[in-house]
C-alpha cells in the first residue's frame, strides 16, 4: 500500500471542511425570530416609519436657517458645559488612579481588590443621565449635579481600564524595584507607572472627550450647561435656535476630538 492509497478522497475532504454548523444556524435563526417578535411587541411598523419621515422633514424645515442672533446665551451654555466636562474629568481621573490601583489583582490582595471592583461596578451600573437626575433631586439644579454625575461615570469607566492596564504589566520590573528596598509608593512610581503611562493618557483623553459629550446631555435633566438651553428651546418650539445650538455642540465636540488626538500624540 502506497502513501497515496491512504489519503482520503478529495470529496471527503470537502465534506469535512464545509460541514454545516447546525447549532450556530439554530442560534442565529432563534435570534432573528426574537427580533421579529420583539419588534411586534414594540409596535414597530412600516407605516409609523413613513409617517416619521414626513414629520421629520417638516421638523428639519423649521430648523433652517439657524438663528445665531442670541449668541451670548449660546456661548454661555457652551462655556458652562466645557467647564463641567473639564472639572469632572480631572477629579474623576484623579480618583480613578488609586481606585484602579487598588482593583489590580496582580498587586493587591483580594480583601482590597473586591471592594474596589465593587465600587467600579457600582459606578458603571447607571447611565450618567440617571445619575444626574438623582443628583438634581438631591442637591438641586445646576452645574454641581452634572459634575458629580460625570465624576461617578468617569470612575466607573477609567477605573476599570486603569485596573486592567495594571494587570497586564510585566512584574519583572516591579520585582526589580522591590529588590532595591523601595517603598510601595516608589514601586508604583518606578515599576508600574512607566509601563502604563501612555495608556493612562489615552484613557484620560478619551474620558475627557466622553465627558464633553455627556455634559450636553446631563443639562437636559437640570445638570447645567448647554443641554438646559437646548431643552428650553425645544419647549418654546424655537427650532431655528435649536439648530444653532446643535451646530455649536457639534463644533465643540469636533474641536475637543482634535485636541484630544493632539494630546495623545504629544505624550506617546
Explain what this protein looks like in three dimensions.
It contains 12 helices and no strands. The protein has helices at 3-6, 10-17, 22-41, 46-63, 71-103, 110-123, 128-139, 143-167, 171-179, 184-218, 226-235, 239-266. The longest helix is centred in the C-terminal third of the chain and has 35 residues, at 184-218.
Question: What's the SSE blueprint?
Answer:
Elements: H1 3-6, H2 10-17, H3 22-41, H4 46-63, H5 71-103, H6 110-123, H7 128-139, H8 143-167, H9 171-179, H10 184-218, H11 226-235, H12 239-266
Helix pairs in contact: 4-12, 5-6, 5-8, 5-10, 5-11, 6-8, 7-8, 8-10, 9-10, 10-12, 11-12
Strand content: under 5%
- Quote the average pLDDT: 83
Give the CA-CA distance, first to last residue. 63 Å
Radius of gyration: 27 Å
Helix content: over 70%
Classified in CATH, the superfamily of the largest domain is MetI-like
> What count of structural domains?
2
Number of helices: 12
Largest sheet data: none
- Topology pattern, helix = H, strand = E: HHHHHHHHHHHH
According to CATH, what is the class of the largest domain?
Answer: Mainly Alpha
Q: Which ranges are low-confidence, i.e. pLDDT below 50, for 5 or more consecutive residues?
A: none
